[in-house]
Design goal:
Blueprint lengths: L1 E9 L3 H14 L4 E4 L7 H5 L8 E2 L11 H10 L2 H10 L4 E3 L4 E4 L4 H15 L2 E3 L6 E5 L2 E5 L4 E9 L14 H7 L34 E4 L2 E5 L1
Parallel strand pairs: 1-2, 1-9, 2-6
Antiparallel strand pairs: 3-5, 4-5, 7-8, 8-9, 10-11
Helix pairs in contact: 1-5
Length: about 230
């Protein structure tokens, strides 16, 4: 089967749904589609924040990020925390902050966020194409052409919101990186942003518990950095 849309988003996560909603408001929902390789969308979103979905932080600014602050400033100036709150209010979700500024839906359930995004996409007429694993991606005559084992999609605009390789147990892999390599885009070196810390004494009761702590990085047996 062959489909044609003006705009297509590869990836049915939070970023993919948000992009689809924004484009649907500009182009009309029937002209926008989300393509997802799995049989359902938002699996990683449902697992975020220990199932509570930590959306953002009231205190988000470039000073809290490592790396190129110019990029962070550019992103936050275009879509601030206030903009994010407004976006979710328009989907019917109110957010609240905890004592450290972390923003969660009032229900404290990630499914609230996914349901709101999905409901808004449906209301706007966005098409959701599931179990469509993109095997090849190319551009011909001003159109992007996506093909799976059985179907083809053509579009004028394309966003790759495939996500990272984090949480492979939820279906994540490196397919997005491989697709974009065909357009000359090479991924930067990949490192885990969140990782477990092994302890000599195992305590299963601590699993999933958030706690403040400190760490010391040793170099040649001597403290090199503390945090």
């Amino acid at each position: 089967m062959e489909y044609t849309f003006r705009a297509v988003i590869i990836g049915g996560g939070a970023a993919g749904h948000a992009a689809a909603i924004s484009w649907a408001k500009k182009l009309g929902g029937s002209q926008v589609a989300i393509v997802e390789k799995q049989s359902k969308t938002g699996r990683k979103l449902l697992a975020s924040g220990n199932g509570r979905c930590n959306i953002s932080n009231e205190n988000a600014d470039a000073g809290h990020y490592h790396g190129d602050s110019t990029i962070i400033d550019s992103v936050l100036s275009r879509f601030s925390v206030s903009s994010l709150k407004t976006f979710f209010e328009e989907t019917g979700v109110l957010l609240r902050a905890d004592s450290e500024g972390r923003l969660y839906p009032y229900s404290n359930q990630a499914v609230t966020i996914l349901s709101a995004l999905h409901r808004t996409c449906c209301r706007l007429g966005v098409r959701e194409i599931l179990s469509f694993a993109v095997r090849s991606l190319k551009k011909e005559n001003g159109q992007f052409i996506l093909t799976s084992d059985e179907d083809t999609i053509r579009c004028q605009f394309l966003i790759a919101a495939c996500g990272s390789q984090a949480a492979p147990q939820l279906g994540a892999d490196d397919s997005g990186y491989r697709l974009l390599k065909g357009f000359g885009m090479e991924p930067t070196p990949l490192f885990p942003a969140l990782a477990p810390v092994s302890a000599a004494e195992k305590r299963r009761s601590l699993k999933g518990v958030r706690a403040k702590g400190s760490a010391v990085l040793l170099k040649d047996g001597k403290p090199f950095r503390r945090t």
